[in-house]
Structures are given as C-alpha cells and as structure tokens.
Design a protein that fits this description.
mainly alpha
C-alpha cells in the first residue's frame, strides 16, 4: 500500500501566504466593499485582544486548510495518469474542483439563504479561489 507524503514546509509556507493573502484581500483590496456588504461600521476598531484572537484563529484555520488540502492533493497522485499531468494541470485541477465542489456551493448558500449580496459572494468566493490556487501552487512546486 502506498503512503501519502506531504511537505510540512509547504504546508507552513501556505499557512503564512494565506494569512497574508487574507489580510490583503480583506483590507486594502476589498476591505471597504466587504465591510459595507457585511454591514460593519469601519470606524469601530476591534480591541487588540480581539485582533490577537482573530489572528490566532485564522492561523489555526489556515493550517487545517493547508494540511487537509495537501493530503487531498497527495491522495489524487495515486490515480493512474495524474503524475503525468503538467504542474499547471495539477494546480488547476486541485484548486478549481475543490472550489466548485466545496466552496462555491457554500458561498452561493449565503446569497440564497442568508440574503447576502452577490457583491459579497464575489468578494468571498474570489478569495476562496485565490487561496486554493495559491496553496495548490505552493504544494505542487514544493512536493
């Protein structure tokens, strides 16, 4: 039986890169639009304790995401012919199919059931796709 191996360094780099991506995505790039769509008052700043708790929680979440995604991508390497696929194909397969199957349905559900706007959908879903593409790239290159 074949063993799944993952690069812990790739997982850790993905955690850091996704943390930075989240900061950039939800602060300078789309922060104002996201806050408006969420109904947040941008003049109210969280306390340092709330910020620390949020950052720690985000890092833990990014770790779980990168670790599970690395295992998922490694498991697919056992499918005949997958190792012959170019790196770009591996990256796109992993990111797009994961986004289509796991993130997109949940993001659409926020519009349908939570009455969130389509603008918020595109901000959040775009982030999820970017996160998957970046992580799949890191995991593919470093494995």
């Amino acid at each position: 039986m074949e063993e799944i191996t993952i690069s812990w360094m790739a997982v850790l780099i993905a955690v850091v890169v996704n943390f930075i991506l989240g900061f950039l995505w939800y602060t300078p790039l789309f922060g104002n639009a996201w806050a408006k769509e969420m109904g947040f008052d941008r003049t109210v700043k969280p306390t340092s304790g709330e910020m620390a708790k949020g950052m720690i929680t985000m890092i833990i979440g990014n770790f779980f995401f990168a670790y599970v995604f690395a295992n998922n991508m490694a498991a697919w390497s056992f499918v005949p012919g997958m190792n012959e696929m170019p790196s770009v194909g591996t990256i796109m397969n992993a990111a797009i199919f994961t986004w289509l199957g796991f993130y997109l349905p949940v993001d659409i559900g926020t519009v349908t059931w939570e009455k969130k706007s389509w603008k918020l959908f595109w901000i959040n879903s775009g982030y999820h796709l970017a996160m998957l593409l970046i992580t799949a790239t890191i995991l593919t290159i470093m494995t």
